[in-house]
Amino acid sequence: MLIRKPQFCTLCNKDLKFKYKPDKSWNIAGYLCSDCHMKMTREFVIKQKEEEEKINKKQNQCFICNDFIDPEKKKKPRWQWAMENDIYLCEKCYNQKELAYQTKINFCVNCGKKIGFIRYNPKPKWKIDGQLCRKCWDAINVAQS
Ligand SMILES: [Zn+2]
Ligand SMILES: [Zn+2]
Ligand SMILES: [Zn+2]
Hints:
Layout: H1 34-60, H2 91-106, H3 134-144
């Protein structure tokens, strides 16, 4: 006499009349009932779609203003800006970032004067983001010590 070994759905524990094999990528052991299998398939498709949209967005939209970018005008941010490296910027945002960056490296953050060849980096404890001219560096150094 053949006795059927009872099998249960891994997710809801329902006795399985019809068993469905879960997809490998779901990381589920055993078998599923049709309801759970359907539910998982739907969730998986939604998740996959979301992932695709995220990638699509990164590839086609500006990271800063979310505008769609003409593929020929896509710009990668400079590494100095410390942004994510798989994103793109539109021309406008790129130029704005570039301007802010150039300002930051070429002008004193304290008085706005253009800095010459020699740069003065603020001491870490001053918590100043940018560079200083000689005069401001000295003044802050005196004030802080
Ligand atoms: Zn189930
Ligand atoms: Zn933009
Ligand atoms: Zn200055």
